[in-house]
Recover the amino acids of this structure.
């Protein structure tokens, strides 16, 4: 399917927003402005954006501990996200979730997740809601290669097939589960093949190529909306940072990250592709870049200026009523 | 009014709420049963028998048989709850929490707090507790205290059919995740239950009997054992006040504290193991907030700190009984400094 100019510009805006957001988070984290842990998504942008370009605000996604990219691609407010990472009032989760639990149910974003493999069963539930209430919505689980080995993921895939739910399992294989290689930890070396074994269509695609991810997802989403049940896609991708911000990455090859940034940068691929094909002009892309830079600056400024949560927030929102 | 069993009362509560609200679904292993078999659907109706017949009225879309897949059931129910359904998920035996606890205590229970107050998770987990069937160590536990210790969960432990119906309807209408514990030896226990729907608020204990001498707090099946003990003790001139909290989260602290303020003596009866238990929790509550009123040490009558044994002779020793409860009451009643 040919994407129109607006869709392409939006895809570029989302991918650049994720990249600049993560670079800035790394910077601010190093300076000590962000408490806790952050897991950065830079390098994988084409996956989140290629998938979410097929979704509407009423479709649901569940994310992973590496959740900023999925959040931005699904439409979460960047300033609200930055406020949340800085643990400030006005954050998407009122400063009570942080990077690992960032969520916005109004945007259909069911949360990053501190538990590897925590999300897939929840997505089965969101897909069950869609099927039961006949909303036509779909639900997408983003799953790392690490979580592809978790039992919850297997159970979620099986139940989605048994109940023929509009669920899509996106396996983002970035080659590492924490500090261990997928080459070691994924026994079959074939996540898509394993998903197919559960009885659903499963494909692999090049995660450096927005268009490949977008097209594979489009087919899966169309099938799910038409009542054709779940699908899985294994996205071959790479991460430019460590498992978490501050990870010394002693387990990675000497030149690995530099080479990945040169050869497998999905933003560079997209930019070259759309300009060479005459789909977008360079000045249009540059203009988006400038807007995004300004947006991130504003978000950080707002996050620095915002007050911390009031002490009373400690005890609120445990229950709706108690 | 008609006499109904706890099984009938629970079934009525589910049917009422499924008629009232199309978002209410039932999901679990064998909740109708027989899918993919020659016997056909509703061949089981749940190992508990509570959900039998629901599929006939509400269909496969709302009475959902799953594979044996507790993590996916709990997670799907949590995900469905936070996106618009009101699922009643069955965790057949509460012992099975071991294979699905993450989806309950890290996901469903924490959504609202982690997401800054935006999530509502109207999820009910019905689960079976209790020893007494020689079902041994992995099918006999009463781990309501584990659920109770989790902020974000509510926990219901009914002791009779009237309460079971009103509390289950309340649980289904509640906007927070609720773990609803049903004792496996009590499904056939009868009392008068109205035909219509009614609710019993959470956090309101039932004072089963009034008495001036000793307060007994008991849960689930232990309410009945405590009542037997109290009958016997009344013949000896000891008047017990028996309190059934009905929900352990929220816990009706006031009713317990008010009672101890009058009696000055407390025995807590709990079928669960004693460490970090409801018995210990209630004892700590009273020690902290009613210390001045106490005329005797608080005694706990509980299972021992062991797995549930298989041999009937050992299991009988494991479960607190009316004799042990009566002995504890006599001890605190006769206590002299």
């Amino acid at each position: 399917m040919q994407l129109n100019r607006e869709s392409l510009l939006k895809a570029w805006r989302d991918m650049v927003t994720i990249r600049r957001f993560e670079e800035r988070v790394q910077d601010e984290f190093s300076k000590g402005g962000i408490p806790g842990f952050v897991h950065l998504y830079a390098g994988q942008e084409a996956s989140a954006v290629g998938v979410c370009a097929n979704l509407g605000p009423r479709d649901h996604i569940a994310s992973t501990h590496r959740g900023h990219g999925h959040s931005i691609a699904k439409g979460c407010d960047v300033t609200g996200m930055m406020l949340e990472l800085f643990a400030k009032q006005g954050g998407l989760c009122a400063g009570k979730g942080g990077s690992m639990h960032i969520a916005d149910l109004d945007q259909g974003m069911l949360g990053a997740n501190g538990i590897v493999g925590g999300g897939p069963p929840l997505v089965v539930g969101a897909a069950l809601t869609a099927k039961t209430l006949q909303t036509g919505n779909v639900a997408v689980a983003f799953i790392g290669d690490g979580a592809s080995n978790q039992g919850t993921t297997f159970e979620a895939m099986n139940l989605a097939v048994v109940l023929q739910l509009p669920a899509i399992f996106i396996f983002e294989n970035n080659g590492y589960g924490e500090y261990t290689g997928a080459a070691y930890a994924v026994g079959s070396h074939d996540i898509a093949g394993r998903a197919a074994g559960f009885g659903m269509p499963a494909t692999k695609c090049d995660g450096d190529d927005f268009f490949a991810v977008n097209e594979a997802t489009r087919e899966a989403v169309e099938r799910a909306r038409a009542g054709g049940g779940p699908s899985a896609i294994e996205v071959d991708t790479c991460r430019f940072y460590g498992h978490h911000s501050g990870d010394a990455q002693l387990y990675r090859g000497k030149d690995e990250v530099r080479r990945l940034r040169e050869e497998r940068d999905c933003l560079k691929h997209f930019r070259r592709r759309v300009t060479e094909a005459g789909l977008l002009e360079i000045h249009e892309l540059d203009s988006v870049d400038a807007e995004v830079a300004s947006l991130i600056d504003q978000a950080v400024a707002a996050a620095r200026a915002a007050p911390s949560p009031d002490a009373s927030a400690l005890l609120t929102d445990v229950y709706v009523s108690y | 009014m008609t006499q109904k069993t706890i099984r009938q009362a629970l079934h009525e509560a589910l049917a009422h709420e499924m008629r009232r609200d199309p978002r209410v679904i039932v999901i679990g292993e064998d909740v109708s049963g027989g899918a993919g078999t020659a016997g056909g659907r509703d061949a089981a109706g749940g190992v508990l028998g509570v959900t039998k017949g629901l599929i006939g009225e509400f269909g496969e879309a709302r009475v959902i048989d799953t594979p044996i897949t507790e993590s996916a059931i709990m997670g799907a129910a949590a995900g469905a709850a936070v996106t618009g359904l009101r699922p009643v998920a069955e965790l057949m035996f509460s012992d099975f929490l071991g294979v699905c606890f993450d989806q309950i205590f890290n996901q469903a229970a924490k959504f609202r707090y982690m997401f800054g107050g935006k999530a509502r998770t109207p999820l009910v987990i019905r689960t079976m507790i209790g020893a007494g069937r020689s079902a041994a160590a992995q099918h006999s536990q009463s781990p309501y205290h584990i659920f109770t210790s989790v902020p974000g969960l509510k926990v219901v432990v009914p002791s009779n059919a009237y309460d079971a119906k009103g509390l289950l309807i309340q649980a289904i209408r509640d906007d927070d995740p609720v773990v609803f514990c049903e004792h496996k030896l009590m499904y056939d226990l009868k009392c008068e239950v109205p035909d219509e729907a009614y609710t019993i608020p959470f956090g309101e204990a039932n004072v089963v009997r009034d008495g001036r001498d000793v307060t007994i707090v008991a849960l689930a099946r232990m309410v009945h054992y405590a009542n037997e003990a109290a009958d016997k003790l009344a013949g000896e001139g000891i008047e017990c006040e028996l309190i059934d909290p009905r929900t352990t989260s929220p816990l009706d602290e006031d009713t317990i504290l008010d009672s101890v303020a009058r009696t000055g003596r407390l025995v807590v009866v709990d079928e669960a193991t004693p460490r970090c238990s409801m018995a210990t929790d209630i004892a700590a509550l009273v020690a902290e907030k009613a210390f001045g009123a106490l005329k005797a040490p608080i005694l706990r009558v509980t299972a021992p700190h062991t797995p549930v044994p298989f041999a009937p002779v050992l299991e009988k020793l494991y479960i607190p009984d009316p004799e042990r409860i009566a002995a504890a009451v006599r001890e605190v009643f006769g206590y002299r400094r």
Notes: Chain A touches chain B through 49 residues (CB under 8 Å). Residues 5-315 of chain A form a domain with the Rossmann fold fold (CATH 3.40.50.970). The first strand of chain A starts at residue 60 and ends at 62.
